[in-house]
Design a protein that fits this description.
seven-stranded parallel beta sheet; 15 strands; binds adenine; Rossmann fold
Amino acid sequence: MTTETPVQGDIKDAALADKGKVRIEWANTTMPVLAAIRERFDQEHPLRGLRIGACLHVTTETANLMRTLKAGGASVALCASNPLSTQDDVAAALNIHYGIPTYAIKGEDRDTYYSHIDAVLDTHPNITMDDGNDLVSRIHQNRRELVDDIFGGTEETTTGVIRLQSMQAEGALAYPIIAVNEADTKHMFDNRYGTGQSTVDGLIRATNVLLAGKRAVVAGYGWCGRGLASRLSGLGANVIITEVNPTRALEAVMDGFLVMPMHEAAKIADIIITVTGDINVVDKDDFAVMKEGVILANSGHFNDEINIPALEAMAERCTDLREFVQEYVVDGKRIILLAQGRLLNLAAAEGHPAAVMDMSFANQSLSAEYLTQHRGELNPGVYPVPPEIDSEIARLKLASMGVEIDVLTEEQERYLNSWESGT
Ligand code: ADE
């Protein structure tokens, strides 16, 4: 049933809107923290009159974030932060049922991807909400005139924060941006448990591979790598970690994983998944030594962690085997690439579960409110989520789970604040 007036946007198929709405409501049932914020926003309208331009993965969870910002009084426009991560039914529902212009089509080419970013920017946002920094980068490189209207932004992911820090270091960043990714209630849960589970979900949905007994290589032992390694291990895979950071490599060793250079791991791997945020982590020389039938995938933000142009150049042929599964033949040996090296968890599965995105998007909503409350007070730069917001989200999440914790007694508080007592 379609009752609302559709807004302008660019979506695959309006007929998918009803299905999308049901799925958005389903996700909402496990996003209690965001729902509570939405209820308050609906009463207080802290974002009244603002225009928010968002470039995020267009999923059921993102739809609930968009609803929250709209309840806060903002006009919101949304485009995809990756060409393969859009859920077309959600994009349709946002346009048709929720009055949120959404420009996103799963599988869009690069030109369409950027035309959708431009469509969002044409709304002249006051706040940008980005996942991977493509929106912010577009503003700074091609749409400079928009900066005057913008008083702040937020960034969702590790890769985006790294790019922002480079901009800040070069003095190129024109307005303040809150690094949502750095909140404890974001990366400790979304990056670890979200990426861990959703990547395995994408791997299994795409291939139906049995993980028990397989040698699975995880490239990168940041929060995403830690989560992914532990989930693969839990399903019976023998996990090998590759790293460039000695402390993280040491942590992986003491967590019980084998650690070795990629070139060695590539020789024995059944599955290789990259989550490093860096380029050409799996490279030409590695393809040459891989085993027959090895599966390659990426869950890092960009599709350049596996050197796909080199793989294409080396391959005698490439065949589509099933959705998100391509077989390259190199020296008579099959190398299987999933989701064209794009984010496996969002391309072949549904991204992180709603229960974890609840906290990430609570951070987004409250950071937008914070920026509004402090409009004009913050210099251009990258800012943390205020710690009181971070811990309030943890408190609300625990409460929603029915988990109670201890409270410091006055004596304990005094003790923690003193230095005199000792052995
Ligand atoms: N990033 C990872 N999973 C996501 C999801 N479900 N929604 C939006 N962004 C995501």
